[in-house]
């Protein structure tokens, strides 16, 4: 059973920084892509950043130059990170970690709240 557990959310002022972490465990040997999504109140969930096994990255236009996604493998666990700098109130939302396996199965974490105060 694959499990994704996020941590690192919280309340921060405009211009501040946060680092989100996601630990993916279970029968994970390979994956197609991992990513961070966010959902703001009253809005649809959107992709924030993604990374492939070759470490190719993709970012939403609104976070380019401010956010950085990275990953590390340690034993049977994959760690996914999102470094968020120069945070804005529009970055507020629930951030969720996502993994797409080589069988195209999608796995989600429970989400972590990020709140940026003005």
Description:
It is a single chain. 0% of the residues lie in helices and 58% in strands. The strands form two sheets. Strands 2, 4, 5, 6, 9, 10 and 11 form a seven-stranded mixed sheet that branches. The chain contains no helices and eleven strands. The protein is globular and about 40 Å long. The model has no long low-confidence stretch (mean pLDDT 94). With 118 residues, the chain is an all-beta fold.
Please outline the major beta sheet: 7 strands, mixed
Order of helices and strands: EEEEEEEEEEE
User: How many helices in DSSP terms?
Assistant: 0
Provide the gyration radius in Å.
Answer: 14 Å
The helix content, as a percent range, equals under 10%
SSE class: mainly beta
Please count the beta strands (DSSP E, at least 2 residues each).
Answer: 11
Distance between the termini: 40 Å
Percentage of residues in DSSP E strands: over 45%
Give the arrangement of secondary structure elements.
Blueprint: E1 3-7, E2 10-13, E3 18-25, E4 31-39, E5 46-51, E6 57-59, E7 67-74, E8 77-84, E9 93-101, E10 106-108, E11 112-117
Parallel strand pairs: 2-11
Antiparallel strand pairs: 1-3, 3-8, 4-5, 4-9, 5-6, 7-8, 9-10, 9-11
Short description:
This protein is mainly beta. It contains no helices and eleven strands.
Task: Please tag this protein with its features.
118 residues; four-stranded antiparallel beta sheet; 58% strand; globular
């Amino acid at each position: 059973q694959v499990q994704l557990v996020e941590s690192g959310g919280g309340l921060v002022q405009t211009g501040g920084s946060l680092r989100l972490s996601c630990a993916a465990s279970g029968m994970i040997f390979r994956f197609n892509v991992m990513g961070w999504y966010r959902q703001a109140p009253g809005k649809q969930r959107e992709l924030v950043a993604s990374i492939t096994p070759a470490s190719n990255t993709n970012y939403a236009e609104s976070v380019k130059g401010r956010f950085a996604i990275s990953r590390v493998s340690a034993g049977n666990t994959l760690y996914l990170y999102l470094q968020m700098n120069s945070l804005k109130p529009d970055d507020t939302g629930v951030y969720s970690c996502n993994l797409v396996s080589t069988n195209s199965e999608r796995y989600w974490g429970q989400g972590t709240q990020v709140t940026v105060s003005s």
